[in-house]
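Page 42, continued from yesterday. The earlier attempt failed because a stray header line got pasted into the input along with the sequence. Redoing it now with the clean sequence only.
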Amino acid sequence: MQNQENPALLSARPDPDAQHDRTMKGVHPLGLEARRDPLVYVPEGLQADRPAPLLLALHGAGGDAAGGLALLRRIADQYNIVILSPASRGSTWDAIRETYGPDVDVINRSLTEVFDLVAIDPSMVGIGGFSDGASYALGLGLANGDLFRRIVAFSPGFIPPAPRSGEPAMFISHGTGDTVLPISSTSRKVVPALEQEGYEVVYREFDGPHTVPAGIAQEAASWLNWHQRV
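This time it went through. Structure tokens are written below.
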């Protein structure tokens, strides 16, 4: 049930001491939605004897769960990170155009399901996305900073408003040649505002369009710093 005072609030939390399926590997639909079902990816190299990191991956406008998964699958394999990739109920995430609602519900149920399936380290749960997914990751991540310790935002447009909690750190990147979400009216305003509010932000501009260069994705994965602990 969604929180009426803060519709962006998530209740799902990992329980690393619960009994989990230690053999689950690869891409799996969660079976929660008849249409645009969320996907979870468990890397083959994941160690079965310890809780894993998890990154919630959010696709851009017009995308789907497979697109969100493709965005971060390479670093998932390299650093043994479980990726949960839901799909928005509409063409983009609810709070991008209106307010938090059905997408929060699907994400909350998806997280609950994955926390039951895979042992996840509560200190290594993050959220990330590209474009509209990056904007939504910032909004949802800041609203649930006690769950998401790290936020990765590739080319965000803005931060959908919601009451905030915790002190998540952020990695934000943006291309100087972006014509979809021009940098001057997006990240160059978002980042200083976050820093002024006291948040820790690593910001990278690159010479390029509305995209996620391989080097930027790699730097974001290294910034997460999870590979040194698993």
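Notes: Strands lie at 26-29, 39-42, 52-58, 82-85, 120-130, 150-154, 169-175, 201-206.
Reminder to self: strip header lines before submitting.
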